[in-house]
Amino acid sequence: MGKSWVMNTSLLFFILFLQTLKHVHASYKCYGDFFTGNYGINRDNLLSTLPSNVVNNGGFYNASLGRNNRIHVVALCIRGYEAQACKTCLEHVIDDTKSNCPHQKETFSWVTEEANDVLCNLHYTNHSTFGKLELLPFTINPNSKVLESYKNMTLFSQEWTAMVNRTLEAASTADTSSVLKYYSATRTEFTEIPDVYAMMQCTPDLSPSDCNRCLRECVNEFQRQYWGRLGGGVGRPSCYFRWDLFKFYKAFDNVTKVLAPPRQCSPPALDCGRDEKHFEGRHIAIIVVPAIINLIIFVGLICSWKRKTSDTGIKESYNPYDGQSMLRFDFVMLRTATHDFSPETKLGEGGFGSVYKGVLPNGQEIAVKRLTKGSGQGDMEFRNEVLLLTRLQHRNLVKLLGFCNEGDEEILVYEFVPNSSLDHFIFDEHKRCLLTWDVRYRIIEGVARGLLYLHEDSQLRIIHRDLKASNILLDAEMKPKVADFGMARLFNMDQTRGQTSRVVGTYGYMAPEYATYGQFSAKSDVYSFGIMLLEMISGRRNKNLKEEEGEEEEEQEGLLDFVWKKWSEGKYAEMIDPLAAPSTNISVDQVMKLIHIGLLCVQEDVFKRPTISSVLIWLESHAATTMPVPTPVTFLTAPSSPSSSLHG
């Protein structure tokens, strides 16, 4: 007991000593080529106003400057910062960066100024990183002391892992009430240490999944290199993680202390720690044994699910619309998953109902489309999507997970696609800069692949009939998925076109022959694809009606009128979205090829429009491609709002 008391007392005095230290905890990294020309001038000019801009914009700021030697910068301060402390921190970081990285094109730094109770970040490069997960390079600053007197490393590992997971989960859950939406600070009481502090923060331009991944990589790096050290920090361009045995940031004063998880065995019957030399083997057991148990449980759940037990809320069900089996979801489960379809979980609203984000009991995120009750059209859409999507599988089509049709409720359950729809990016001045030409090209190509599958490669022949930017969903990697098949039509494989008296879809995206005569075919989808493509190139929404009087003439032009006019005048640069971030992988010739393809897709004459397979060949060709010369385009005038939809 005496020896243990001495060790614990020594540890306590050491912790108290650590708490008296106030210093700068800095992570700097210089990388990339040396710059030449006026890159340094652009850097200095951009950084000169950066501290004020960060404070004035809620704690986060991104900007770029220059043409030939363009520099891009992202900077932030920790949530809850004081304005002057934030400015001072960034000023110190800028000065130190210029001193430590005088000629490199790229650098990032995370600095904790404990004297001023603030954390700040600076990252500049010669290419845009805004909205991109940047994991490399990284910095790591471990404390020099090793926790040698901690007698039970197995227990310490369990408690440390629980603390880290709790902090990470909170940090990677977006708090949209703050510009600095990814942040968490925790204070945990371990069995043999009174207070352990952890803090995590991501740059707010990331998606939640990217923030989670970034922070996990930081945690893993610390464990790989410096496990057993008494605290430290790991910084990556997109995120930062630090833990210590003292309050290194003032926010910990307002953080509620929580107890670490209890011991997983009861002394003295079992000796949880025994000897530190057994730690490594026990650590492996801690990972492997639960994994085996989880596997057994998982197999049991699968068996239970296949027996169609009613208590899971999900059953394998016979699909009455096409004779196939799929998942039938319990309404109570879906209501719980969406917090009773609360407005906070609402993702959007369409002509047939609303879409909500939900989380199943197993943690899987889902998108839940609840169709409007008593709507005959909604019932038709429900049957249509269940019929089609159960038989369609493609990476560029949204996946239908199942359905619910209890009473008068008709609900469709899809995979959750985290980055919402394309229109939320292309028509938003603040988000358009995330769509680099690389990203735009990949989205256009992905949508074309999805259409090719519908038109030619699937076991069915499908005409979508409502292809538009709001029906293109973007996953965590900004890859597109065509969605909303409620208005799609199924053709026989030898059928090429059809006609309907019920014109459905969205004005501005409808082909002339479909809007006027109800005639539709695969070329109708090609027309809609062309409109979407030209919107992505120009950053302009397709408008077919004159705006209110008093606006500038150019603003009154519809998209097709605008593009054709600039194309025929040879003013190609004026067609291109000025907010699109440049890319080293996409040339001006490739952007011009996209415009050319878009004009061919929106030809009034159906026979002059290319097939989607021809479009994909042109997109994938890196050599000079011969394409037909487009003729003057026509544009349809809608009887109401230019973006209005028809559903009956």
Give a brief rundown of this model:
With 648 residues, this protein is α+β, with helices and mostly antiparallel strands.
Describe this structure in words.
- Pfam families: Pkinase (PF00069), Stress-antifung (PF01657).
- It is a single chain.
- The chain has 648 residues and is an alpha+beta fold.
- The protein folds into 5 domains: 20-130, Gnk2 domain, C-X8-C-X2-C motif (Killer Toxin P4, Chain A); 153-259, Gnk2 domain, C-X8-C-X2-C motif (Killer Toxin P4, Chain A, 2-Layer Sandwich); 276-306; 310-415, Phosphorylase Kinase, domain 1 (2-Layer Sandwich); 423-647, Transferase(Phosphotransferase) domain 1 (Transferase(Phosphotransferase), domain 1), CATH 1.10.510.
- Helix content is 35%, strand content 21%.
- The protein has 17 helices and 26 strands.
- The strands form 7 sheets. It has a 7-stranded mixed sheet, with helices on both faces. A 6-stranded mixed sheet has the order 6-9-10-8-7-11, with helices on one face.
- Helix 3 runs antiparallel to helix 4 (83-100), helix 11 packs antiparallel against helix 17 and helix 13 packs antiparallel against helix 16 (588-601).
- The radius of gyration is 29 Å and the shape is globular.
